[in-house]
Amino acid sequence: MNFAFTSPMLLLALLALPVVYVIIRLLPPKPKKQVFPAIKLLYDLPESSPPPRTPPWWLLLLRLGAAALLVFALAGPHLRLDAMQLKEGPLVLIVDNDWRAANRFEDIRKQANLFIDQAGSLNKDIILLPTAGQQTPQLMDTTEAKTFLQSLSPQPWVQNPSEAIERLQASELGQQTESIQNLIWLSSGLMKTEDTRPFLEKLGEIGMPRIILPSATQNMLMISQAEAISGGYEVTLWRPRTGAQTPYSLTLSGMDGGFITRSAGQFDADEQTTTLTLDVASRRQQSGQGGGVLTLDGQEHLGAWYGLGELTGLPKVAISGEKAQDYPLLEGNYYIHNALPEYADPQFIGQNTPPESVNVFISTQTPNNTNDLLRWIETGGVYITFAQESTQLENMASLLPVRLRSSPRSLAGSLSWTGALALGDIPAQSPLSDMDITAADVQVTKQLLPQDSPDLENKIWLTLEDGTPLITGDKYGQGWRIFVHVAADAQWSSLPLSGLFPKLMSRFMNLARTQASQQQAAYPLPPLRLVNAYGQNRGQSLQAQNIESADAPISQQNPVGFYGVPRSPYPHQLSSSQRQQQLLLPDDLMGLPVYYYNRAGSQLPFQKPLLIILCMLLLADGLFRVWGWQLFESLRHPKESLAKLRKDSGKKPKHSPNKMGKIRKFGKKASLGFLVMAASLSWAQVSYGQTLASGQDTTTPPAGYELQIGYIPSFDEAQNTLTRTGIEKLNTVLKMRSTLTPLPPKALNPEVDTLGYYPVIIWPIGPDVRYINQAAASNLQAYIKQGGLLILDGRTSQGENPQAMQELLNSILKVTLAPVDKEHVLNRAFYLLNNNFGGENPTATLWRDKQGRLASVLVGNHNWVGSWATGAPMRFRDSANTEQAYRFGLNAIMYALLGDYKADQLHIDTLLKQMREDN
Amino acid sequence: MILHAAEKIAYKLPPLVVEAIRTAESMTFGAHGRRRVGPGDSFYQYRQYTAGESTHRIDWRASARSERTFIRENEWEAAQTLFFWSDSSPSMQWHSQATPYSKEERAKLICLSLAALLLKGHEQIADMDGHMSPSRDPGALWRLHDALSQAPTGNVPPLMDLPRRSHIIAIGDFLMDAEQMASWIEQASAQGVHLILVEIADPHEETFPYKGPQEFEGLEAEDPLKMGNANAVREAYLSKRQRLRQALQASANQAGARYYTHMTNDSVKSLLFKLFTHLKAGAR
Description:
Strand content of chain B: 15-25%
Number of strands of chain B: 9
Largest interface: A-B, 36 and 43 residues
Distance between the termini of chain B: 46 Å
Number of helices of chain B: 8
Largest sheet of chain A: 7 strands, mixed
Radius of gyration of chain A: 39 Å
Order of helices and strands of chain B: HEHEEHEHEHEHEEHEH
Strand content of chain A: 15-25%
Structural class of chain A: alpha/beta
Radius of gyration of chain B: 23 Å
Shape of chain A: extended
Oligomer: heterodimer
Largest sheet of chain B: 5 strands, parallel
């Protein structure tokens, strides 16, 4: 380490210091001027002394110091760390650039640049040897080497660095040179222990290597393995360097990048491996079909990229019997079907035994052959059955967790003493024990009771208030037998009608052992979605080829990524042992000279701290100028001046305050404050660098959750004004014709704003549509998933923009569309529209997204906002199309607020009856 | 030109005069009538006309109401005359940071307040420079204000021939020219007039809070004075001031004059009260 200046010639200016000294001495601080009428009395006072000719010694020192510091700082002082001298001969740089270098490739590149510069100043030839790739080594000059270096990037595969040396030896160049003096290995710092020694020996064959390692501060975490378990994954994490407690967060996203779930945890101190259970079952709605990717946030390398071929599958559900049709409210299957989670698309089967592929079987019938069913349960099926009037107990005793009494007991009947029973509690050993049932309002009037048996206690999952079981269950083999002691329809109890029922059903679903199916991959597998060395999607690669067999290594031809077809993607990724790379430590390197990135040959300038000290000195000087002797005196006699201060503050002027004096004082304080602030600001900027300028979330939850329609503005101000006017007029219509009183529309920035406050967001897609970045895209996706309604209008008064619309739907929102048919609720949510949606193009098809029961995206080509804006809702003189556009707006908002309430025909009888009575 | 001056006065006058009136109004002056017929402004009695008197004196309106003929007689009012002088030299036009009032402003305010008070008691007021004749109508206060503003700058009141038993009220920062002042007191008191002296000082003149290197400048073209540490001369300055004041007070005592000191950050009212009680005692 040594000390140097970038421009040492400037130090000659220090010679001028004596001159500065003389000048400062000649310019003592000027006495303060003071007008004083009683000056006559001051003449000839004996104690009067003339002002000093020279400034006080400390002020002199301060100013001389400031001048000297300025010269020092301008000369650009810096410390040179780890000076590395190049020897004779060409410079050979071995650059690690397989996946292991991804985390620190910028360091490697910077360091290589430094060496190339150094070699350039000594007119040396340079050989750059990247470890990943097949390039033939060549002699290069500085410019060529820099260009080549710039083209290098970390590669998403594993390659033994020895190959690079072999390439050099095989080339003409290697055969010419004897021993390389300037051999430098820019190492990624990660290597399997068993590979280290052979590689170092290989290096020794061609010369005397010097090794650059990353400084050990970087914290790398790897996903070592992810094992599918019931309802999720057990993920094993590994880190090469144990040490302090380290938090991490693990993200599961779909293969296309859509967020699914995230979980956080931490490595305890000195822990090398940790495991985490990731719950996917509760996020099944988001996961959908296809593969998934596990990544560790903040770790951008392939060690923290884990592809999952199929997400822990959704349980496949079968229900015995027919789908309820004629009198649905009397059929148990109707309630069961409706209580199932949305993702469970059950098949109705007539037979007693479900096929192997089914995970959950719900039955309301008595099976005649129990053996097949028992075998199915043993292999991991979940069998759920309900009590019913005609349960033939002797036939199905083996399928039930408990033995039952032959006849049900009636509660609240004309002959019974007790009334209907409510829910009791959940025993501690029950799998449902963490459920909250306090809010559930369930009344049971009829129930099948179990016979007493020693193990009955352990099988009760949920009791009634008198302690008798409502649900019993036990584990059988690898599967579960579950019995609900009431019928699946509403005649025995109100359980099927209560909100508890769907929750119970989804709990039962989670018991199902579902595993990623280990289907046989059909080789060869074509590349599907490849990633770069940072674990980001990079789409296709020209060099990537089909995977021919299961044991194909990760190589340039088969880099990391998904292969196969979209329906069943196959992740081709680092093996668990390839992920567990050790850190290279200086001790392992057979005594070879070791240097560190960012330090070898680099400089630590400290001009900025010097300038800061200079600023502080000048500030002190300024302080002296402003307060001068008073400050000096108060430093010398702090008590006295304090007492004076107190006295002064206690005495208030009796009439109007002395304004000028106050302003002057305030001015002084303000200027001092400003100086301090400026100094601290410059300090902050030095220590933290530039702060990120980013937008602010401008949304506030509307008071009282009133309705507010949002819109996404475009870059065209005229269009924005039109949109705003249009929505305001629609608001007028809403106020006049419904009970809604919406707030004025709100322009939204999807990047930062909380979209969830706005049930409806209108987005005209015109020529000047705004760009959507990643943050905005995920925000919009979340909005759609949460159940918001996004109305996209492909026609605006400014024109159309089909490309933008295409891209928005396919790549950003990722929705598939279906036309809105005449039966759709949107056609009758408020007005009967009959597929006439008004606007400029009234009969154009209106599209909605296909996923889910309720549409979250409506896509039209009608220029609704334009029509709304031209209308005059207060005067009822609008053209038919404008009126129809308003009606569409009303329907869309009703649809967003009430969902498919109008499609619900449950109360139609009552409603019709009431209408008749009213008439 | 006159208009311009008038505007200037109108701008300056009201607050000062109004404040003076307000201060004066919180006190009352004893009734001053002589309770007999004589030259005066206010009505005293009606008397029956006797033959031989000038018919000009008949009050026809009163006579018309009855069968007799009346003469209207006014009360004889003999008032004292008080002469005001306030120092308007440049050294008076200064105030320190401790107070918003310059010494001149304060001196005028004291003059006018006292004058307003005296006018309520039907005393005559006048200035020392002869800009207004002694008078006691309500407008006299305004005229006194004008007269004080027009007074020539001088550190010492002029010497005038004044009626015996009249009062002179002189206000200024006497310490600057203590010797001249002392000789004026001697000469004026020799004329047999009552002297009331009010010495005005700024708080900073009294305490001298300056420290460190200072360059002092006067207001009356004195030579500037630089000193290395103002704090060092503080004691000397204050004792010199004290000495001068004691000397002046001594000469005032000798001449039978009253000597008050007033700081510009003190209340006007308390001084006014002192002056007023003194004058009242003298009037009896």
